[in-house]
Amino acid sequence: GTQIWANKIKDYPIPAVVVHAKGKSYEVKDAEEGKIHVVDRDHISAMKSTSINGVEDMIQLQDLHEGSLLHNLKLRYDLGKIYTFTGSILVAVNPYRYYNIYGIDDVRQYEGKLLGTQPPHIFAIGNAALDNIAKMKQNQCVVISGESGAGKTESTKLIMQYLAAVNPERSMITEQILEANPLLESFGNAKTLRNHNSSRFGKYTELHYSKSGTITGCSIKQYLLEKSRIVSHQDGERSYHIFYEMLAGLSTQQRAKLSLSAAENYYYLNQGNVTSIESKDDEDDFQRVQSALEVLSFKPIEQEAIFRVLAAVLHLGNTQFEIDSKNNMETTQILDVALTGVVAGLLGISADGLNENLTTRCSVTRGEKFVTPLNLEQAMDTRDALAKALYSNMFAWLVNRINSIIDKHSKAYSVGVLDIFGFEDFQVNSFEQLCINFANENLQFYFNEHIFKLEQAIYDKENIDWTKITFSDNQGCLDLISKKPVGILHILDDESNFPKGTDEGYCSKVTAEHKSNPFFVVPKTRSPKFGLKHYAGSVWYTVHGFLEKNRDTLRDDLKDLLTTSSSPFVSELLKKDGVSDSVRKAAGASGRKRPTVASVFTTSLTNLIGTMSKCYPYFVRCIKPNNQKSPDYFEHTLVLNQLRYSGMLETIRIRRVGYPVRIEFDSFNFRFRPILKGKTPPREPRAMAHAILSALVISSKDSWQLGLTKVFIRESVERELEEMRSFALFHIVVTIQKHVKRWIAVQRYRRILRAIVVIQSFSRMQVARREYDRRLGAVITIQAFARMIKPRLEFVAVRDERRRERALERDRLRAAGQRSVGDVSELVIPDELETLLKNWSVSSGPATLSIDAIAELLDGPWKKYTYPVPEIPADVAGHEFSKFVSGFFQQGSAWSFTRGTLTQTKLKLKSPELEDLALQLFNVIQRFMGDPSLNDTEEMIFAVYLISKCLQFPVLQDEILCQLCNQTWLNPNDINAERGWLLMALCLSCFSPSERLHPYLLCYVTSHGFEGYKALCQQKLLRAHQRQSRSYPITLLEFVAAAQQKPMLMSVKLPDGTSQDVMIDSTTTASELGNMVAQVIGIPHPSGWTVTGNIEGKDTKMFESEEPVLDWISQLELPPAMHKLLKASRQLTPGISTKATDIGGTAASPDNEQGPAANLFKQLRTRKPKSILLTEGSDMEKQIDTMFEDLLKDNEEEEEEEEDTSHSHNGDTDALAARIQGSGAGVPPPPPPPPPPPPPQFSFSAQLGAAVPPADAAAVHPPPPPPPPPPAPLSQLISASSQDKSIVEAKNMSDSTVTAASRNSVDFSSAGINALKNQIAKNKGCNYNGTS
Questions:
Q1: Is 442 helix (H, G, I), strand (E, B) or coil?
Q2: Per-position b or e across 143-170, b if 16+ CB within 10 A of its CB
Q3: Is 1076 in contact with 1245 (CB distance < 8 Å)?
Q4: Residues 506 and 546 sit within 8 Å (Cβ to Cβ)
Q5: Distance (Å, whole) CA 1174 – CA 944
Q6: Cis peptide, bond prior to residue 1047, ω within 30 of zero
Q7: Within 13 Å of residue 636, how many CA atoms lie on the same side as its CB?
Q8: Is the pLDDT of residue 40 over 70?
Q9: Can you say how many angstroms the Cα of residue 1030 is from the centroid of all Cα atoms in its chain?
Q10: In whole angstroms, what is the distance from residue 967 CA to residue 976 CA?
Q11: Separation CA 416–CA 617 (nearest Å)
Q12: Mean pLDDT of the chain
């Protein structure tokens, strides 16, 4: 079971487990493949603990060979740990799956931490680069390398995201930098056989930083876009992502505008037979592209131009040619001219010019123009050259446009991130693979130079004692490819400059020149290819197309055609070839001569290496675990080859014995001086550095050396020094804080002490001052009051006199008819109203009194009662009446005071007849408000008629209320306005507005109410809300009370001869009145009481529980003419109308019980009455027995069977008393709010009598104060005349009822009730013991 290293099985030591020993050999089990091998004892070695458990930094491996590196990566890969350090070099194995290790918490974990103190991660490299900017004040770069499909592009995006996330200032520039990556990825990446998202161009992104460490901008440089992929690709591959994303993401209208269809229909896209990728959503990626264009501030016209060029390239690829002959010469012609017309339309050029240039070549010699027809192959090459030029130049424009947005040309330092195409070796390798592998050779050279050559040179220069490391140097391969004058690329440039040069001739020259070079491989058979020994292995290159791809020329006549485009974007696109002037000059181009691709690429690589050489580099080696792009699959041989050619083993060796951290003495001493903890350091820099390093505790002496000008230390020493420095700085800061806090505390104590003394002196002064001021103020107050008495009395007298004068003036104006704002006396009124004015006579009831008599009564003892301020709901504040006008008034109807007739109703009514009636009623309102010739009785008739019509037609109620609001709004005559508010109060006494109008009307009354009518109308609105309308119009009592804004009182007479005064309003029901009386006399929790009405010589009125009491009074007061009018109107408009529907009709009157309303009243009246009126001269005991016949009958049957009759009788009487007090069946209406407790001598009264209480009422039984309202106080309460001999009697609405009579009265005080109970028990042969 021992874990060992087994040699001689493969070309590297493999991990194995000993199964058992066989003599001098061991049988071991291979840990990689699980096979059993027999290995000689001399060919095995024990595995160290670092290899068994794995390490985060491979420099710590005790077993240092290829097998240990491979085994360590495999152990961590199986655990999901894809990152491993090799000193400051990060090895990243592509997991081919997503790990949740890149969130904001992970960013915070690595932010500001030293490299190596946290587990290996790509974020650690980004943080180290930022820290080095702060410490070394030097530009940094991160070189990400590896094979195609190893994860370089994703690593680049993660580095960029980390640098943006830790940027101290969030700004738009960081968002734009991040959005540039997916945009360029769509235009420059494609699916290859090895990678679904392979970068087909090189990119060096340089983030610019200010001195404070914030991102100020960014610049992007691109290298060698693979142009051949635009027009061709192998089976199983795709062209660039943007084509497929555009076709999947554009809307149907946009695709139709560009004449586009599915990707399978385009030759440039369907050659690989793959138009979609399983793990990629092209539609979503296109949305990200559009979002990136928006964030990067691309104009809409620019975005449209980009998509038009892309569509033109696709249509150009579908252009087909056919062979033709003309004048015995082979020519070509376009099969589908309409297709080239679409291309020309998209590019904004002439269709005929495009057709001509695709099939012929125009040249000018000595001023003479020659047109040469093209053969089929030349025509197709011309088509492809145009497509490649359009796309490649647009890609170069795109990079330059992004740089113009995000490159602010202001930087102090920079962090560069290199993401370049990985090393490639396909079955057929062409010119692009040669350039790509040449770039990787340069990166490997840069890596070797930085890690090995420069390192060893610095050690020699600084006299550092160490052993040199041998490494694989690729300088010879670079010279073979690019060294002048016989490098492979230079020979290619020379051959490309010959017009008749061929690929085969180029191959022959290269082979003849370099066949003896150790890095050059000659094919065994004659074929157009050659091989090169790269650092990553030998690669064979097929030279077919090398010259054409290197020239990359587009004919001048095609360029001239495109410059005539109507689109500024297209016309400028080919004027420049995407190469900067400096690169053109270095590549040897001059004038109109275009540099070759090889020369431009070589020059760009040289500049790139020069830029990175000025930076401190960090390396990220991306490793591809398998070729199948499958997760959890580790191919040992593939990974080992990548480790070998990347020089990872040599890197570990030089990092182990070398000193990667090198700091000058002055910088080292300045940074780590606090470690000496107050000791006086030597003045000589080298001696001070030695003293600092001697203070190390953990690191050994061989982990650092002192050179001539620098300190050479390893990463572990740097980490220990940083920790010691942080610890020392912490104690230094604490010491400084301690002394500073002590000094601050002392200063604060002294300030407090001085302040206390000052406060004490001021406090003593203030006490004395206040006492003086108090006495002085008292003297002045006494003097002021003494001097004020006489002027105050004079002022009050003058004020009262002026008030009287104003009141007299108002009365004079009213009497003189000054309430009119125009001549309204001639306004036409309805014929029915004219008839009423002629035939009006009071029928019966309180109206037998005159208006003056009732007005005089209102100034009696009840004058002191006024309406309390109502409680208005808070949500009414936002319901201004102007909002109702704009929302519900019909068009053409304005909200303004009207002096004459009204031509249009305010609200839209359901029929013309109703609208005509509403307009006639407006004349009634005008006459009521402004006709000075009307007397009090006529005004009463006008109001009764108006309200009767509103009750008859409920749909008119909101209209009439809106008309009244219209006439009271900005009324120039106060008396006229006062009449309008009186009429509104009278209307609200009988009906309430609809639910939609109620809050607006309440808000209007609250904001604009006229003097006393404000509170009056508020009370009526709140009281009548959500209650049924009255059945009859107002009474004379209501009219007078409203005119004087006085409350109404009703004197309810009880059978014992006493009466009880109760405040009522227009909506008070019989049950409410009965319950209020019961509550006033002291019955606890009164519920179910009501009253009855009686007029001598007439039938008793049996009130329903919710029937308004004043409706009965109004019915009695109405004259026969009014009854006749109501009867005629009901016959004309049968049915019941509500505010929610448009059903006409009114409730039946007593004289006419027709229609649904009559049936309803009939049902109510035919119900078994719950009270019996005690008539004059009848036997009270018999009537009481009759009232409780059923109850007493049941009790008699029970009494015959019981022995203890006394006990039974007591129980019966108790039950009877309970039922008399309202505990019977039925659900009584809610009681009114409790009034103040009445004096004990109060008892029921039951007579609706005089408006003035008895002469001795004030002395003997003063009226109780009005009860508080239950959301708002009750409306006006006033008593009526006693001359009509009418009676309102109290009763209980339970199963057993008791009523009060006008002549044979029953005392309902506590003594009276007990006497009643005893009388009942006596009639039944039982005794009453006096309990309730």
A1: helix
A2: bbbbbbbbbbbbbbbbbbbbbbbbbeee
A3: no
A4: yes
A5: 35
A6: no
A7: 19
A8: yes
A9: 51
A10: 9
A11: 9
A12: 79
Supply 961's token pair: 């209320």
- Residue 253 CB burial class (10 angstroms; 0-12, 13-18, ≥19): exposed
| Most distant CA atoms of the chain, gap in Å | 153
The SS3 of residue 101 is coil
Q: Which residues are catalytic?
A: 148-149, 153, 195, 198-199, 422, 424
Number of other CB atoms surrounding residue 556 within 10 Å: 12
**Pairwise CA distance, residues 1287 & 1091, whole Å:** 9
Question: Which residue, 914, 910, 940, 865, is CA-closest to 1235?
Answer: 865
Cβ-in-10-Å burial (0-12, 13-18, 19+) of 414 comes to buried
Residues 6+ apart with CB under 8 A from 906: 889, 890, 893, 959, 962, 963, 966
User: By C-alpha distance, which of 322, 323, 304 is closest to 312?
Assistant: 304
3-state secondary structure of 50: helix
Residue 539 contacts residue 531 (beta carbons within 8 Å): yes
Token output for 549: 């791809």
What gap in Å lies between CA 814 and CA 1258, rounded to an integer?
A: 35
Helix (H, G, I), strand (E, B) or coil at 948: helix
Residue-wise pLDDT for 1262-1298, tens only, equals 333 343 333 333 233 223 333 333 334 333 332 322 3
User: ∠ CA 575-576-578 to the nearest 5 degrees?
Assistant: 150
Rounded-to-integer distance, Cα 1111 and Cα 1069, Å: 9
CA dist 214 and 209 (Å) reads 5
Contacts of 1297 (CB under 8 A, 6+ apart): 1170, 1171, 1172, 1187, 1291
The identity of residue 597, as a single letter, is V
Distance CA(1311)–CA(1056), nearest Å, equals 11
Phi, psi of 908 (to 5 degrees): -80, 120
Say what the pLDDT of residue 1144 is: 31
How are strands ordered across the β-sheet holding 36-40? 36-40, 25-30, 14-22, 3-6, 44-46
Higher per-residue confidence, 308 vs 1316:
308
The Cα 1242–Cα 1061 span in angstroms is: 10
Distance, CA of 343 to CA of 341 (rounded, Å)? 5
| Half-sphere exposure for 1280 (CA within 13 Å, toward CB) | 32
From residue 1155, how far is each of 351, 1162, 1263 by CA, in Å?
A: 88, 11, 44
Residue with tokens 């589908």: 336
User: What's the pLDDT tens digit per position in 859-882?
Assistant: 666 666 666 678 888 888 889 999
Strand partners, 199: 189
Rg (CA), the chain: 55
Write out the DSSP string of 871-935.
---GGGTT--HHHHHHHHSPTT---S--SS--SS-SS--SSHHHHHHHHHHHHHHHHHHH-TT--
CB neighbourhood size of 896 (10 A): 9
Q: Phi and psi of 375, rounded to 5°?
A: -80, 180
User: Three-state SS across 770-807?
Assistant: HHHHHHHHHHHHHHHHHHHHHHHHHHHHHHHHHHHHHH
Strands 704-706 and 710-713: antiparallel
Distances (CA, A) of 1157 to 618, 878, 989: 97, 38, 21
Whole-number Å distance between alpha carbons of 1100 and 1095: 7
- DSSP character at residue 240: B
DSSP 1249: -
Residue 1309: pLDDT band by 50, 70, 90 thresholds? very low
